[in-house]
């Protein structure tokens, strides 16, 4: 073999290895291509140890206490507990005949499909299935004032709110009941204590909210601004216009543009925020934080953590919680009262209190994560070789819904070619 032939063989081998590596990278994501920056998919293990532990999964990986693919330890976890497989229609987990079983959203199953946000219990360990950007979920549980959260929440809405306020901007904090938006507004206002006076106006106050006369505060905290009468909104807007460098920190229980469209907020009041709005994630979409929130509630209420069974914690993590943290706290306290001073807290005692999400899950993720929605839609079209009808069947949607979703996500189906790598 001459040098030219040897070089050709080496180069051919390198190309084959590169192709193989590219295929592996594509397989490292369920609905999105894998990246080298630590993103990917898998389980985020949660519990009372103050840590969120991501477990990276791959096609064919075995989860268990003796596994090299996905090592997970805990009571009731077998050496080889479950196997993960990726098919054209999604990701599946298969129990490998274990005594304690594998549960997905409370259902014990031999083999079952997984979707983003599903709660998986293996023995006594609980995890949340994540389809992409797994590394963003991992790390120590944090506390910002009274708020208990993981690193993803710090990055997604806590730091953005604080950064806007530190820069002197106005900010509108959107969120549902009990998500912490009022607490976050007060924490943000504390950043500006050295700038000047802070005035708080509460739209939920009984009667007409009072606004102190004759003062020019540098920071306005307007809680539940969408419930504040328009005359008070106008008064605040005029006060802000009379003084430079003033920051308004407002909270609303619905998206800002919807509040304006419904007549809850005057357009000239909403214009103070110039598009600077941050949405606090509801508990249903931050399930990895619920175990830490439960631990915080239990410690404040004097409930021993040893009384909270894995089955109860699983039920709490997968519940909907439209009322937010206060509803979660009331449910946990009720379970403790039913169980007595020393009894174990069981799911049966709170079954009637748990709010469930719709049994028919949307095929695409909620609008809170449009990048994930776009990735899943692109993947479905690629698997269907660009056929909208086939992609619609695999996602359980109509073709019209596919086109509407593509338009919402800025995806041009007609001009773009989709094919699998």
Automatic annotation (TrEMBL):
Transmembrane segments annotated in the record for this chain: none
Basic and acidic residues: compositionally biased ranges: 23-33
PROSITE patterns, per the entry: FHA_DOMAIN, SIGMA54_INTERACT_4
GO biological process assignments: regulation of DNA-templated transcription
Residue ranges, annotated region (Disordered): 9-33
Pfam families: FHA (PF00498), HTH_8 (PF02954)
Record's compositionally biased regions (Polar residues): 9-22
Residues covered by the FHA domain: 44-109
Keywords assigned by UniProt, alphabetized: ATP-binding, Nucleotide-binding
GO MF annotation terms: ATP binding; sequence-specific DNA binding
Domain Sigma-54 factor interaction: 227-337
Protein name as annotated: FHA domain-containing protein
Lineage: Bacteria, Pseudomonadati, Myxococcota, Polyangia, Polyangiales
